[in-house]
Design brief:
375 residues, alpha+beta, Jelly Rolls, eight-stranded mixed beta sheet, four-stranded antiparallel beta sheet, 11 helices, disordered N terminus, DIOX_N
Length: 375
């Protein structure tokens, strides 16, 4: 009698596919996910299929009455009373949510809208034009690809991305594509200014002098990504962006009106509806580390959708490869350590954190666990 389990195993072995070859085949087109959509694919390639049980475990949206805090920044730099109230609200949001939206900030809505449009224009231009910027060299000032962790992750995400290192050394304008050159440089000026205000408020919220976080280098690096999420024919099988926390200190994000961002709050996925003109701010891993877990770097994700494209632009205040500042050492701020609040993390080189982040990819786990002190 033939053992049926052996037959099933043999059948599975025969249907095994060469994942590496499929990844390389997709990557070599340099057309990204948009190329699949342009080819009118009705099925997503296997490399994009996520574990169904994992999707099912994370599918609940939880309490839809919960909303990410919205903070009005009107008067933040003119009115001491307003600044004190805003600082308190920022502190509470960083401690309980790790996310908040701000309105009446310093970035003109027209500039934000143009930045969104520029990302769309880049991704929707002729593929032969885009191909010249396609790269996996993360030290380049500007590059375009699909999934920075394509070869590390267990399942690819349904999105394409442009990436640009804007600080500490601004790129030569000629290194940037003409379709988004001017607005990238203009938008970065406004984001840098808003970031400096935010880091002052965060310093004050920690009971430190306003310039503390700036003085230790938190505002030095600025890394921008422009995500393009095409409509997906099988959104139930994949994700736009996997569950993850952000690298660096702080992320400022703008999104179009399609929406889709979800934040993990109290073990439930909460939708973050688009609020036109708002900037979404979230605590990133290194800010959690230097605040010794006082401020929380929170998991978030983007489900795939049948409608699209969705556009988002994230600006990360963080160091990056090849910028020199990745040699900087960070650990919990000494003023925040006490007998009641003992040190949780060891001091680390930012390059070690970045290397781990890129090596593991977006797998739903925080790199911070690797840097905790042994108890």
């Amino acid at each position: 009698m033939v053992d049926s389990s052996h037959i099933e195993f043999a059948a599975e072995a025969m249907t095994e596919y060469d994942r590496r070859s499929e990844l390389e085949g997709f990557d070599s087109t340099k057309a990204g996910v948009k190329g699949l959509v342009d080819a009118q694919s009705t099925k997503i390639p296997r490399i994009f299929v996520h574990n169904e049980l994992k999707l099912e475990d994370n599918s609940s949206h939880g309490n839809c009455q919960s909303n990410v805090p919205v903070i009005d920044f009107a008067g933040v730099n003119e009115n001491p009373d307003s600044r004190s109230e805003i600082t308190n609200r920022v502190r509470e949001a960083c401690e309980t949510w790790g996310f908040f939206q701000i309105v009446n900030h310093e970035v003109p809505v027209t500039v934000m809208d143009e930045m969104i449009d520029a990302v769309r224009r880049f991704h929707e231009q002729d593929i032969e034009v885009k191909k010249q910027f396609y790269s996996r060299d993360v030290t380049k000032k500007f590059y375009y690809n699909s999934n920075f962790d394509l070869y590390q992750t267990s399942a690819a995400n349904w999105r394409d991305t442009i990436s640009c290192i804007l600080a500490p050394d601004q790129p030569d304008p000629e290194e940037l594509p003409a379709v988004c050159r001017e607005i990238l440089l203009e938008y970065s000026k406004h984001v840098t200014k808003l970031g400096q205000t935010l880091f002052e408020l965060l310093s004050e919220a920690l009971g430190l002098k306003p310039g503390y976080l700036k003085d230790i280098g938190c505002t030095e690096g600025l890394f921008l990504v422009g995500h393009y999420y095409p409509a997906c024919p099988e959104p139930e099988l994949t994700l736009g962006t996997s569950n993850h926390t952000d690298s660096g200190f702080l992320t400022l994000l703008i999104q179009d009106q399609v929406g889709g961002l979800q934040v993990l709050h109290q073990n439930q996925w909460i939708d973050v509806p688009p609020l036109h003109g708002a900037v979404l701010v979230n605590v990133a891993d290194l800010l959690q580390l230097i605040t010794n877990d006082k401020f929380k770097s929170v998991n978030h994700r983007v489900p795939a959708k049948r409608v699209g494209p969705r556009i988002s632009v994230a600006s990360f205040f963080r160091t990056h490869f090849g910028e020199g500042s990745e040699q900087r050492i960070y650990g919990p701020i000494k003023e925040l350590i006490s007998e009641e609040n003992p040190q949780i993390y060891r001091e680390i080189f930012t390059k070690d954190y970045l290397s781990l982040y890129y090596k593991k990819g977006l797998d739903g786990t925080s790199p911070l666990s690797y840097f905790k002190l042994l108890k």
